[in-house]
Amino acid sequence: MYKIKSCASRRNGVDIGFTLIELLIVIAIIAILATAVIISVNPGELLAKARDATRERHVKALETALYAYRIKNGDYPEDMGTTLTEICNTDVTET
Predict the structure, then answer these.
(1) How far, in Å, CA of 87 to CA of 70, rounded?
(2) What is the mean pLDDT of each run of 10 residues along the chain (95 residues)?
(3) I need a labelling partner for 19 at 20 to 30 A (CA). Which of 37, 42, 43, 93 fits?
């Protein structure tokens, strides 16, 4: 009958396998590599850049709308005619 050998089998009375120190060293190396990758990717900076790009698009859209208003009416609007709360509570979704 065939015997199945495991990773921690015995050869000549000596256990074959990984020691605790070897496992800890490998875990430490993996942790250092993971930290290096997280620092290089820097998700906070990427999110900040994405928010800035969104803000720039919104300002550009507002600029374009004001320019179109000026072309149509001959001058920029003097007053929005609404309060800031009314502007912020609109149900308009971005497409």
Answers:
(1) 20
(2) 55 76 96 91 86 93 90 82 59 55
(3) 37
